[in-house]
User: What shape does this take?
Amino acid sequence: MARIIVVTSGKGGVGKTTSSAAIGLGLALKGHKVVLIDFDIGLRNLDLIMGCERRVVYDFVNVINGEATLNQALIKDKRVSSLSILPASQTRDKDALNKENVGKVLEELGKSYDFIVCDSPAGIEAGAMMALYYADEAIVTTNPEVSSVRDSDRILGMLASRSRRAELGLEPIKEHLLLTRYSPKRVAEGEMLSVEDVKDILSIPLLGVIPESQAVLKASNAGEPVILDTMSDAGKAYQDVIERLLGETVEFRFLQVEKKGILSRLFGG
Amino acid sequence: MALLDYFLRKKEKQVTTASKAKERLQIIVAHERHSRNKQPDYLPELTEDILNVLRKYIKVSDESFSINLDKKDGNLNVLELNIELHDEHSTN
Assistant: This one.
């Protein structure tokens, strides 16, 4: 049985697609069969972050409409053979997805993959609801910032009431908190909510803390998920996330301000 | 200047914006959670009454009956009843 994981947030621009790409690729690098699905119908971007935008021929909606088979639409990652990407369509057909046809596609994928990672669109409209409906687990991506935390809490409410698991009275979706764009320096200065603050408010288990990092923009520029940048802080933090998803206990890194030398303290910079 | 900043900063640490943010969030999130989970207290009794009326006429098991009060955007409340009817004619 495949683990269906939705990467969601409510608010836009907090790092859902960056995280989906890094986590999907990271799990595949560990030898698991992974499929990444872009649920952002009309605004596809996962292909760009994954660096496979020029290889998109058919998309999710084509599969739903029977215009292409799943195998025709799935794009095999060139770096890791056990990873595939199912791109979203660029046409703005909001009603293309419904519970029944999405369920069929997920069931079919579940036969040959270990992990199905669903990259949710922002908001709480139909698209976001569809992305979370079949999930077994949810990675709630949150920035340490008031509007993002509030929206994450709304999404937690949706996970608990609008998912398939909720409707059927099954065991609830397993929730994980992924704190992104974290700046230990600003936390130390009292300008940013700390990990503990966000954990206190949302009260769900912490999966990872990704530091604010220049590596993220560089990675998306190049179409190489940041987890491949193994020397970067963000890349390392995502690797820890993968270990934790696979059941390992890994200490949290990048929560403290890096120590500066005495010279830079005195002279700034 | 960094040296000067270092000593000046020590004094001004009282209420940080982060702690304000946390306090505001705790209040609004608690409020929103409360309104999300609020079911009117008459709901269990209403359910019982509706079931009793239905059972005068048809067979309804507890599993095939569900009731839901949904708050939509604005002032709209929707009471949703779901009753699964088993066709007795086709089975007999």
User: Anything to note?
Assistant: The CA atoms of residues 1 and 7 of chain B lie 10 Å apart. Chain B has four helices and two strands. Strands of chain B lie at 65-71, 77-83.
